[in-house]
Amino acid sequence: MREDNMDRSTRNSRGQFISHQSEHGRFLQQINFTADCWFWTGAPDTNGYGRFWLNGESIQAHRYSYELFVGPIESGKLILHTRECGNRNCVNPHHLYMGTHIDNMRDMRMWGNVAVGERQWRSKLSNADILNIRRIYKNGGYKYKDIGEMFSISASHASRIIRGEEWKHLNL
Ligand SMILES: [Zn+2]
Hints:
Blueprint: H1 2-10, H2 21-28, E1 31-33, E2 38-40, E3 51-54, E4 57-60, H3 61-69, E5 78-81, E6 96-99, H4 101-110, H5 127-139, H6 144-150, H7 155-162
Antiparallel strand pairs: 1-2, 3-4, 5-6
Bound molecules: zinc ion.
């Protein structure tokens, strides 16, 4: 949902990037530039990503940076940090790349955010999986289908977990 909002605020009806000079200036003022990473100085979200307020919406700062310096984000694609960077609050466009959910899963494993473990060998989800599924959904940007793909379950199964119809005993 947040991604849709960002699309509306930064692109015209043909999908082209719209320049908002004052917004760019405001964005750049919130960066602590170093020779390596460009650290976002605003408060991070619960996942450690910088957030930038734009038209009353809080969007991920690194996504905004990518669109500003690199170009439009393709539909369904994610903006990920390179292995060399790994700082989620970094908005240096040289440290960002456009990737897929598969890439994201690899990164999350790398950073230990998702207890993937031996998922492919297990037929059932673990408690940690359930909590991660709900957390990923709550943080926004992913549909049931996307999350289902991450955890090798169907979209409807993911939705039942997220809506609490399954695994009710695991309260958040
Ligand atoms: Zn960086």
